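Q: Fold this one first, please.
A: Sequence and structure below.
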Amino acid sequence: MLAPYEEAKQRLKPIFGEGYLTYISSSFIAGFLAAFLGLPFDNSKTKIQKMKAGPDGKMPYKGIVDCFVKSVRKEGLSRLWVGFPIFYVRVGTHAMLILLVTDALKHLILGAKK
């Protein structure tokens, strides 16, 4: 979250200037990337947590990489992002709020030292 947030701020400052629009836009980008990059892992983790042994006693997945490969082969690549809107509401907004509060506190604390 932090690296995309800082990178987005640097790229958006020449466009929007130093201010709330830059911070909010940057946190939106960072939140989107956190949700987009994290959801495939979360979906695979959920599949692993819910897996049950088959009739032969074998588990369907050996690990997260095996889960990724089998999921893509069986369901297609786009299914790794199933449930993205709900996941974004949960993770993306959390990332946005944390980044904005952290930046505000940093300006408050560092601004007071100057």
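Q: Good. Now the second chain.
A: Here it is, same layout.
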Amino acid sequence: MKLLPLAGRGWSDERGWAFRPLHEAGVEPARVGDVHLASLEPGAVRGNHRHPNVTEWLLVFGAPATVAWRAPDGAEEQVGAGAEGPVLVELPPGTPHALRGEGPGTAYLLSWADGEPETEKVAPLL
């Protein structure tokens, strides 16, 4: 799992921020097999699954969230995301992951993958 820093990318003004997430992730739009937007209320958890066949990117924004994943060696790790602005998370194929909204307010996840993802449930991370 890796966090892709977004500072200095895209643009912002008095209205807020904007950037091209596929471009920043290095993904050709023709290779995208799935795109979805989800909300995450404070305390709610999404994920606790993995996609064995695709890389998935998650743009976390709107409110703080915790991102948890299981590394290839089995170690479980967590990082805070979205408190200082949008964060782009890259999850290699087969990486178990979950997210929890930390509030206040609703966090949002814009997700896309480089193919049509298969989803397998995993032991809960959050």
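Q: Anything worth noting on the second one?
A: The mean pLDDT is 88.
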